[in-house]
Amino acid sequence: MSRLHSIISAPLITEKTVEQQQEGKYAFKVRKDSTKVEIKEAVEKLFDVTVVSVNTANYTGKTKRVGRSVGKRSDWKKAYVQLQDGESIKEFGEL
């Protein structure tokens, strides 16, 4: 499996991202060490679309505790991908 196939972990489906899909913006959970160029190449290759821009956001995991034990959720990265006008990703479905 090439690195491009492992960059995108999952699509993010929320109320906000569903509204943004009407404008051609899609959100993905991606690898923490991926770059914008790698994300663009991965989306273009996997979904056969043209990507105009990529914006990323890093999230730190929250500290959680249950009784005396303390744990931490893992850090993660989100990518917003803007597609060229008129294109869409069919795998997301039309809502």
UniProtKB/TrEMBL annotation:
This is Large ribosomal subunit protein uL23. One of the early assembly proteins it binds 23S rRNA. One of the proteins that surrounds the polypeptide exit tunnel on the outside of the ribosome. Forms the main docking site for trigger factor binding to the ribosome. One of its GO terms (cellular component) is ribonucleoprotein complex. The keyword Mitochondrion does not apply. InterPro entries: Nucleotide-bd_a/b_plait_sf, Ribosomal_uL23-like, Ribosomal_uL23/eL15/eS24_sf. GO terms for biological process: translation. GO terms for molecular function: rRNA binding; structural constituent of ribosome. It comes from the Bacteria. Belongs to the universal ribosomal protein uL23 family. It comes from Chitinivibrio alkaliphilus ACht1.
